[in-house]
Amino acid sequence: MGSLESNDSTQHKTRIILVGIGGATCSGKTTLAKHLARILPNSVIIHQDDFAPPQEQVPVHPVYNVQDWDAPTGAIQWPRMVESLKEVKKTGVIPPEHISHDHLNEQKDVPLNDGLMLRWSRVFDEMQRNAERGGVKIIWGLVDGFLLYWHPGVYEQLDARIFLRVPEAILKHRRYERHGYHTAEGSLWRDPPNYWEQIVWPAYLEANRDIFADGDVEHGGPSGKVPQLVLIDAIEASMEELVQRCCEVLKETL
Questions:
Q1: DSSP assignment, residue 244?
Q2: CA 29, 34, 92: angle at the middle one, nearest 5?
Q3: Residue 220: closest CA among 202, 208, 206, 228
Q4: Which long-range CB contacts under 8 A does 165-168 form with residues at least 24 apart?
Q5: Of 142, 149, 114, 164, nearest to 17 (Cα)?
Q6: For 165, phi and psi rounded to 5 degrees?
Q7: How far apart are CA 64 and CA 202, in angstroms?
Q8: CA 136 to chain centre
Q9: How confident is the model at residue 98 (pLDDT cuts 50, 70, 90)?
Q10: SS3 of residue 137 by DSSP
Q11: Which residue ranges traverse the bilayer (predicted)?
Q12: Which of 15, 33, 112, 131 lies at 20 to 30 Å from 215 by C-alpha?
């Protein structure tokens, strides 16, 4: 899908490119998005987690009687997210009423080779200058989320669609190492016992089964349901390799 273009006050056309970075919880998608934001000029990050409902509205699992933050039907306020993405596509600006709580969460530092960052920064800076000489200003929106490819209204807004796949055992280990997640209200959510086995992993399979061939989330290739999905088996790659691959995809998208 081509990106939307609009006029800005300097008579440049503004081209907004939305890039989806999806994958399971603890797959490295937010870290990757932040590295890409440092490389791409005129870029903003949109976290899907910020569209979760207020804590008191999160549904309770009918079997395990705990709040279910992961089932796709109740984990995200989908109309609000879709409208926000449409607004970003139109303006290149995150709506002023949108508030992110990502900064409250534990931020694990995964360093990136300075040479790689500099090299790709120069590539995209030059592409930006070339576009501006042609009267076009480019703005990048990096959208990260664990349910990014479940709702068509979300993934249809994306110009590039990337999925990071990591084996369950590694995801589970990383999740257990985390101290919890902050809600929009600022409170800290900690997983109850067996939350991974009963809630998180089953919901991940449910949300992503259709986008993989034969429903094989761990080993299957893209099914075609999400057009032009770029699947990266992230555990086999270093952060440098992930950034390199994604920058290649974004360069081709641009």
A1: H
A2: 105
A3: 208
A4: 165/23, 165/24, 165/27, 165/217, 165/218, 165/231, 165/232, 165/233, 165/234, 165/235, 166/23, 166/24, 166/26, 166/27, 166/28, 166/233, 166/234, 166/235, 167/218, 167/235, 168/201, 168/218
A5: 142
A6: -110, 130
A7: 13
A8: 25
A9: low
A10: strand
A11: none
A12: 33
Per the CB < 8 A criterion, the answer to whether 117 and 40 are in contact is no
CA 196/CA 177 separation, integer angstroms? 12
Which two structure tokens, joined as six digits, stand for 223? 């099914």
Burial of 146 (C-beta count, 10 Å sphere; 0-12/13-18/19+): buried
Structure tokens at 197: 């086995």
Q: How far is CA 53 from the centre of its chain?
A: 18
- Phi and psi for 93 in degrees, rounded to 5? -130, 135
Write the pLDDT tens digit of every residue in 25-49: 999 999 999 999 999 999 989 999 9
Q: Give the pair of three-digit tokens for residue 240.
A: 């440098």
The 10s digit of each residue's pLDDT in 14-27 is 999 999 999 999 99
Alpha-carbon distance of 169 to 176, in angstroms, equals 11
Q: What is the pTM of this model?
A: 0.89
| 72, 77, 81, 83 alpha-carbon torsion, rounded to 10° | 130
The tokens of 137 are what? Answer: 């200003």
How far apart CA 249 and CA 254 sit, in angstroms, is 9
Residues in the chain: 254
